[in-house]
Amino acid sequence: MKVGPDRIRSLSGSGGGPGPPAAQAADGRGIGEAVFDFGERAEAIDCAVEREPTVADDADKMNGAEEAPRQQREKPDPPGYFEGESMTRRRAFTIAAQGIGGLAGAAIVLPAVGFAVAPIFHRGKERWEAVGPLSDFVEDTYRQVVFTETVGIGDAGKTTAYVRKSSKQLGEEPGKYIAVSNRCAHLGCPVRFVEAAGNFICPCHGGVYDFQGKRIGGPPVRPLDHFQTRARNGQVELGPRYSVTSQLEPVRARDPGEFTGGVWEYLYPPRPSTFPPP
After folding, report:
1. What would the DSSP string read from start to end of 187-236?
2. How many Å apart are CA 164 and CA 55, to the nearest integer?
3. What is the pTM of this model?
4. What's the chain's average pLDDT?
5. Which domains does the chain have, with CATH numbers?
């Protein structure tokens, strides 16, 4: 608060005149000095009480910190809303538009996916073809034959096989016929049987297989594939292709470069279009 000069005079002495000597300050100062000292104190009090506004005060005013919180208005109901409805018209039209868009997208995407995936699961009809009379095949060597593995694509569907009669000395079932594919198990290059060495040799990458088609050298990962065989009407017939493990156990056909047997059966699963092994 501010202290006026009248208040100062009343404090200095009654009646406005100079006070008696007893009114002098105890420390020997005169009345004038005491009034001057009291005025300084009044100015100090005034400066402490009535301070000038600061930047923080201006910021509070601008941000509305000193104002009372405003009452928020309630959100109005959307047009067409009636009490008790569970879905607005806008929401209903939005869901309907999304559903129609999804159906249109499915009508375009599903046929394309089916066209691309269907050949993987398509399995053709099992086909057998005669390659020669029973008397043409012996136990100690192979005879090269050419037959159609895939019909409808001309010469590209033909393949080569090496056929012989089963041998007791090799632990094979008597009276059967063995047909070994000429497709290398490395990259699919054509191999040939070298009768002088009694081995199958791939001239492309140096793959070598023994008389039964087991891998004995080079980069191939498994033995040569086989074809199913049967004897009908005095003829040897060849059927679907199948792969074998390193112990010549039959498994479903694999592509070149894929392992067979053991855990590899799960790491390299066969295509659904392949035929089951014999």
Report:
1. T-PBPEEETTTTEEE-TTT--EE-TTS-EEESS-SSPPPEEEEEEETTEE
2. 105
3. 0.59
4. 80
5. 5-63 (no CATH), 129-267 (2.102.10.10)
